[in-house]
Each structure stands twice: as C-alpha cells, then as structure tokens.
Amino acid sequence: MQIKEKIKNWLLWSQKYTQTDMLYVAKGGFWLFMGQAVGFLANFLLIIIFTNWLSKETFGTYKYVLSLLGILSIPSLSGLNSAVLNAASKNEDGSFLRAFELKLKWGFWGVVACLAVALYYFLQGNRVLSICFLIVACFLPFFNSFSLYDSFLAGKKKFDLQNKLNILTQIISLVAMALVLFFTDNIFLILLAYFLPLTLCYIIFFLFVKRKFQFNNQASRETLAFGKHLSLLGGLATLNSQIDKIILWHFLGPAPLAIYSVAMMMPDKIKEILKIIGSLAMPKLVVKPISELKKSIPKKTLQLFVLSFPIMILYVLIVPFVFKWFFPQYVQYVIYSQLYALILLSYPRILSGSVLTAKQKTKELYIGSLALSPVYWILLLVLTPTLGIWGAIISFLLLEFITFILQYWQFQRINN
Question: Which residues span the domain enclosing 326?
Fold first, then answer.
C-alpha cells in the first residue's frame, strides 16, 4: 500500500508540470500500453515468421491483398467508429447499435467491389488473385462491422476490458497464423488464417459487450451524420495509407512491396503505441471547452515532439541489429526503415487532429483531406516509378509533415 500511495503522490505532483490528469493517464494508459505492447510483439513475431518462412513474392502478394482490402472496405463507413466513441463519451449509447446496422448494411457494397476485383483478375488470367478476393468477399462486411465494440469501450473509458479483449484477439490470431505458416505457404490458407480467427473473435466479443452493458436509447442524428462525414474522410485516409502499396505492386512487383512492408512495420507499430495518448485524450477532448484546449494543446504538442525525437534516434541506431538478428533476408534494406522512422516526428499532430474530430469540425477535416490527398497521389505516381521504394517513402513522409502543419494551423483558428 505504501508503494501504491507513493506512486499516486508522484503522479499528483507531476500534474503541475504536465498539465494533465496523470491518475487518469496511469489508469487508462496501463491497459492501452499493454494492448499496444502485445500487438507490437504479435506483429513482430508474425513478421519474423513471414520473412523467414515465405518468399518475398508470396509475402508481397499477401500484403497487396490486405492493402486492396483496406480500399475495398471504404463503403463500410469506418468513420462511424470515431462517431461511436464520441457518442459513448456523451452516454448516447443508442448510437452504437444504429452505427453497427449502418456498417453492416453498407459493408455489402464492399462485397460487390471485391467480386468485381475478383472478376477483373479472373478475366486477366490471374486466378490466384481472383480466388484471393473471393475469400476477402466472404469476410469483409462482418470483419469491419462487429469490431465496433472496441470504439464503444474506448468511449466509455473501459480501457481495461477493451485491451483485454484486444490482447486475446491478438494471441488467437498469431497462433492461428503461425500454425498455418508452419505447414504451408499456400496464399489461400494464409488468408483464411488471417480472416477467420479475427472475424470469430469480433463476433463473439461484440455479443459479449452487447450483453454486458445496459444500453440507453439515446442516439444523436448529428453524431451519426458526422460519422458519415468521417467515413468519407476516412476513405481518403485509407486510400492514402494503402495506395503506396498498390502503386509499388503495379510498378515494381511483389518482392519490393514485401521489402517496403518490412521497412515500415516497426516505425508504424511504435507510432501506434505512442497513439495511446490520443486514445486517452479523445473522451476528454469531447467535453472540454475550446478555450481550455487552446492553452493546453500547444504545450502538450511540444512535449510529445520532445518525447518522439529521442525515440526516433534510438530506433535508427538499434534497427540494423534487429534486421541482422531477425530479418537476415532483408538486412541490406535496413536503410529504408531508418529513413521511414522520421514518421515518428510527425506523431504529435495527433492532438490537434483529435481536437478537430472531437469538436466535429467537418469543414476543416474536409479541407485537409481534399487538398492534400491529390498532392500525395501525384508524388507517388512521379517518385515511385523513378526512385522506387525511396520515392514511396519520401512521398508518405511529405504527406505526414504537411498534414501536421495544416492540422495545427486549423486548430489554432477554431473558435468554438
């Protein structure tokens, strides 16, 4: 008890320097960190298995299918996840089930898109990719809809339950994938090992959360409407996050895509761990007045930048040894991962971006996405064919840092 009391006193003392509710951060942050840490470890082990047991061509094909899956999932209204988090923070529980119905309904348009892609590759004589997208079509609407419980739990600040379920899902998925990869390199079985365990977990946990909580009937049309706007914006964000891999595949082939994916893996997962702060902040940003946020967000953005810089430097120094020990077939490509690690310096934009989302600043969010997305696509189409993997990485880094500057400027300009 004395140790617990000392930790509590230290957290209370630190609040005058961080200007943050450190007790809330410690309580919620522990489970969020555990969830992200297990996710990082599971992903890391999976990449080790992929890079050592599969050829670059098979791994690249797998990454291409998952990248195109992200784009084909756009009709599933991904923005409703943020809307549900927002609604749950305001005790508008009825929005959860209504959003689920909308995601499931619209998700079937993603099935139509998958079937169209499968038909395209069949007519092109590529039966492997044709069957791959038939498999994707079987899971897509359920895969994206039933996972909505995660956003509801985040909005209710049930970070312990949220991340216990996430950890269990990660472990089940890792075990299933490892067992399949141990016995075969068949791309169809690998895709089934990815989709089937995750989909079953999402359905079971969705039903569990639905039974566990007493839902009220409050639902805001404005919140759901905002979720549809976020879905359009999220569609552009998804397209931005996946189009680099699609372009790499078409210009350079599956092997360079595998190299690119391995280079991005660890910086992206580190960024996900750092996003814990954004996950903790979102429920509180919804209810805090703009005047208060105008005072706190600039300081916290600077604090996050100071935190992310040494993490980036440490990664650049350590990653050559990581590649040598765990990814020996990719060791000559470590320089790509070191360059991509600059992405960590753009991470502090999560605070200003989260304020725009929490305060439902639709116009500002549209301006950012509609203005920057075409610039990014042009950069990719120009730099990737000429510079290869270097061009794809440079294009994405430019997008992230310009977005950082734009979102911070937009945050400074909002009044209410």
Answer: 18-413
